[in-house]
Structure formats: structure tokens, C-alpha cells
Amino acid sequence: LQLADGKGPPHADRRQAESVLRAADRVLRRIDKERLAAHFGRKQKPTSAKEKALHERMTMRRDALIEALLRKARVEAAAGTSGAKAFRDTYAELQRWADVEGERFLSLRVQHERARGRLGTALAHVREKLDGKKPTKRKVHELEIELLEELGWSHWADQRRAWLTLRFPKAYPPF
């Protein structure tokens, strides 16, 4: 099942947000979570073709479940206080099925910590990503600046903003 095109925020407008929520709910209703949990509750070493096919189907279902929960949580997080309880419930369900420590879930983890009033923890998650070995996207740096301003640390935000122009110049000088 297709949830959305995956381009841009899934909550760009109200109709699109509602369609993402409906699609995610359809996916969540169609997946037998108990059977999926039973399958992944123990180590799988499929040997026969039948076992391999079953494992592949279950993996696809788990991935669809995670994707549906992720998109649903993003829309609910964008709803702000009107979707706060729904967001907490969806995020808790997502944590049961996926390791939310990955880069893919960073903005969602930050939203979760913001909703709990834990801006320092949200900033720690962003800093952890920025301190990693891989180059980071501008969006992560902007998220850090946003959190610094929310914490009232405008001098740090200004310093990070100055570095942002050096890290991501509008144009590079000719050779």
C-alpha cells in the first residue's frame, strides 16, 4: 500500500494530512501485529524456500508497519497540542517495532522530547547526530539552532548560525 509520495512533509496541508492518517490506519488494521510479533520474537534462520518466503513476507509487513507508524506520528506531531495524546501513543507503538535511535527518526525523537518538555534531551539527540563521523545535512544544523533559541541560548544560536553560512555557502568560489 502506498501511504504518500514521500516527497515533502506529509502534513503539507490538511487534506493531505488526513489522507496520510487514513492510509496509515488502513495499513495498521491490515497487519496482524500478534503474528508478526510471534514471528520476530525469536531468531530466524530460514533454511527451506517456504521458510525464506515466509520470512520475507513478514519482513515486508514489519517494514510497512514501521513506515505507517512513522508517517502517522509525523502528521500527529505536526498537529501540535491537538494531536498530543495520539502522537504519544503512536510514538510508543513505533518504539515497540523499530529502533528509533537512527537518523531516520531524529526529527520524531526531537518532537517527542519537545512534547515532554525536555529540550535539553532533544538538543542532546541532535548534538549526538552532529558529532558523528558522517557529514550532516543543513536541516540538522537548523534544528540545533531552533532548539538553542527555544532554550533561550541566543548567543549559542547566533554562533551556530554564523558557522552554518561557512559550512553551507550559497556559492563556492571559482578555482
Which secondary structure elements does this structure contain, and how are they paired or packed?
Layout lengths: L13 H17 L2 H8 L8 H30 L5 H14 L8 H10 L3 H12 L7 H13 L3 H14 L8
**Beta-strand fraction estimate:** under 5%
- Shape from CA axes? globular
Helix content: 55-70%
Please report the number of helical segments: 8
Average pLDDT, to the nearest integer? 84
The structure class reads mainly alpha
* Number of β-strand runs: 0
Please give the oligomerization state of what you see.
single chain
First CA to last CA: what distance?
49 Å
What is Rg? 19 Å
In sequence order, what are the helices and strands, one letter per element?
Answer: HHHHHHHH
| Main sheet: strands, sense, barrel | none
Low-confidence stretches: 1-8
Walkthrough of the structure:
- By secondary structure, the chain is an all-alpha fold.
- It is 67% helix and 0% strand.
- Helix 3 runs antiparallel to helix 4 and helix 7 runs antiparallel to helix 8 (154-167).
- The longest helix has 30 residues, at 49-78.
Question: How would you concisely characterize the structure shown here?
Answer:
By secondary structure, the protein is mostly helical.
List keywords for this structure.
single chain; 175 residues; mainly alpha; 8 helices; disordered N terminus
